[in-house]
Design a protein that fits this description.
Helices cover 39% and strands 19% of the residues. It is built from 12 helices and 13 strands. The strands form 3 sheets. Strands 3-2-1-4-5-12-13 form a 7-stranded mixed beta sheet, with helices on both faces. It binds 6-O-phosphono-beta-D-fructofuranose.
Length: 357
């Protein structure tokens, strides 16, 4: 069978491990042939293709990034975009397409599937916010990097009696923030799921200070929202700029610095901010992510040969399963209340006005 592969959206440690697993199992067990489309959907639109054989995937297991490169190109936003993709897939003799991507990339997979293209999806996002799967590969690597950064920040914050705010990725959900925050013992963890009040953050830090802990570490997801005075459930993300990408997302970033300024102003404690940004997405995947990515790759090529098109491989418990792509992109996976309660239960909230805060 001739199978196309592409990687779309933000890159993610483990993409190469998935590509390698797909190609090796496809060649060794199914006698497949592979074509890699470069730079996500852009490569399908502009017909940028390279052959993927055993030579092409040799040595890529531990490599970050993606040998196919990536982009946030959205064919649904281009004139005749979908038709051009279908034409180019046919012109290349592609009988099935394996798409590695998050909800945006997979929304295009779903449209192509509805137009008769045989597509299989692999969930990819360091944010871990794709629903239907317990974990996306790349998430563990991002959490490991963020946790190490929090550990390092801890010692320097303690040495200088400072508050340090660590801003991590997480556009719509706070998985990286809550995992790295719990793992790194952060004193305050702020996530998009739970709009926050700056005065409460300052009060928590002051309470620590009052009981003799003269430093604090705050972890905040880039998409965390400020609760407004009038409607605590509604807040606005702090934006870096207002221009949107082809999937309609603004570029986030800056909330860490803004929060640091407000904490210093309210507490009088010297406060600094560290923005981890793309450091979380770069470099070699952890062993966990290499194994998960490999299992997803094997699962994806098996789905192709079972004829399970329009499906995406997912991890449920410790089992690889599949669900319809349509189901995976229908909603965002948010941090569970159980995990939020774990984080809150470790925070010193004695003396707060109300437990509901
Ligand atoms: O979607 C994953 C993600 O890592 C988000 O957390 C972040 O907002 C975004 O990508 C950054 O994208 P870019 O690399 O295009 O700036």
């Amino acid at each position: 069978m001739k199978i196309g592969i592409l990687t779309g959206g933000g890159d993610c440690p483990g993409l190469n491990a998935v590509i390698r697993a797909v190609v090796r199992k496809g060649i060794f067990h199914y006698n497949d042939e592979f074509a890699g489309f470069l730079e996500g959907w852009r490569g399908v639109m502009d017909n940028m293709v390279r052959k993927l054989d055993l030579e092409a995937v040799a040595g890529i297991l531990p490599r970050g990034g993606t040998i196919l490169r990536t982009s946030r190109t959205n064919p649904l936003k281009k004139e005749h975009g979908l038709e051009i993709c279908i034409q180019n897939l046919k012109a290349n003799g592609i009988e099935a397409l394996i798409v590695l991507g998050g909800d945006d990339t997979q929304s295009v997979s779903q449209k192509l599937f509805e137009h008769g293209i045989k597509v299989v999806g692999v969930p990819k996002t360091i944010d871990n916010d794709l629903s239907g799967t317990d974990f996306c590969f790349g998430f563990d690597t991002a959490v490991t990097i963020a946790t190490e950064a929090i550990d390092r920040v801890h010692t320097t914050a303690e040495a200088h009696n400072r508050v340090i705010v660590v801003e991590v990725m997480g556009r719509d959900s706070g998985w990286i923030a809550i995992y790295s925050g719990i793992a790194g013992g952060a004193d305050v963890i702020l996530i998009p799921e739970r709009p926050f009040d700056v005065d409460e953050v300052a009060a928590t830090i002051k309470r620590r200070h009052d009981r003799g802990r003269f430093f604090s570490v705050v972890v905040i997801a880039e998409g965390a929202k400020l609760a407004s005075e009038t409607d605590p459930q509604r807040g606005a993300s702090i934006l870096k700029e207002s221009a949107k990408d082809e999937f309609g997302h603004v570029r986030l970033g800056g909330i860490g610095n803004a929060l640091a300024h407000e904490i210093e102003h309210r507490t009088g404690f010297e406060t600094r901010a560290v923005v981890l940004g793309h450091i979380q997405r770069g470099g070699s995947p952890t062993a966990f992510d290499r194994v998960l990515a490999t299992r997803y790759g094997v699962g994806a090529i098996d789905l192709v040969h079972k004829g399970a098109f329009g499906e995406m491989v997912v991890l449920r418990g410790n089992h690889i399963r599949s669900i319809p792509i349509a189901e995976a992109i229908a909603k965002t996976s948010f941090v569970s209340q159980e995990l939020i309660d774990v984080a809150l239960s470790l925070q010193d909230r004695r003396g707060e006005r109300s437990e509901a805060a």
